[in-house]
Request: fold
Amino acid sequence: MEFAAIALAVILYGIFSHDSSDRVVLLPEPDGKVGKVVVKAAGGERLLDQPYAAADVSGRGAIAARSADAAEVRNRYGSTLAAQPRRPASYTVYFVSGSDELTSESKPVLEQVKQEAAGRPAAEVTAIGHTDRVGRLEDNDALSKMRAEVVRGALQEAGIPAAQIESAGRGEREPMVATADEVAEPKNRRVEINIR
Amino acid sequence: MRKHIYIALLALGFAGATLADSTEAGTVKTAKGTVTVERAGQKIAAAPGVKVYAADRVLTGADGTVGITLRDNTLLSAGPNSTLALDKFAFDSTTHAGTIDATLKRGTLSVVSGKIAKASPDAVTFRTPTTTLGVRGTEFVIEAADRGE
Reply:
């Protein structure tokens, strides 16, 4: 009897408080910042911009705003969040002037990149090469590609399939530090690497 | 002769449309339990490394969860008993312009928005049967009630 009452209560709770509505919860980012989401339904529009701000939307589109908390998110969405892919990682490696040789500081960074990529399930990598403005535009296009190819080679050596690596050179067109033409700038002689 | 050119152009147009529909959108990175990718009526078992294309649907069973990284670094993960339709995806890796339009038909979905939302916030939309979300960034969870399809 008591069991039946509890079962009924659970079912009613399910019907009226949760399973009949769609919901959205805004989460804080790992660094504590929080974004913004605009929730629109037949019954209007709500902006969520506080950590754990939530909106429950009924089947008819009525929006009820409320505050959720970390415990509710853990209980309700724990397995969903646990399935999240690893966050993408970015690295920059630097090169000796006019060459595709890594600076001595960047050699260990490339080793780190190889480890990071090899440790991820189904890793995909982009490597975009750049140069400073010393030399001719066309030569720098070629040099930036060679630099990206050095990173590609290292990644393939680490076991990343060629098809999972996208490499390109942008020459001197996208400097990290803007300079006049023919100025040597170590920060611009680089390959930007994204691992996802 | 002119007619033939028109027909050829028309055929090219269709080929273009087909290519656009099969844009590679992302890659499965995590998969547990029963997870299926549906593409043009075909069912593919999802495992890390399986590609996901625009217009695909991703389904998880009662024991299933899946994590997908889209090409713009958007992270998606779905909990058990979920159906996610990736209605549209486009991304230019140079300009970071693009579109994401996805519908959670049932279940739960976590989202960490990526480069498209950063470059053009109005280009990223997530939906449930009752709700449309405009994403200005960055992390949130969505739940769509089980209406028993």
About this structure: Residues 23 and 56 of chain A are 4 Å apart (CA to CA). The longest strand of chain A covers residues 89-94. Chain A touches chain B through 48 residues (CB under 8 Å).
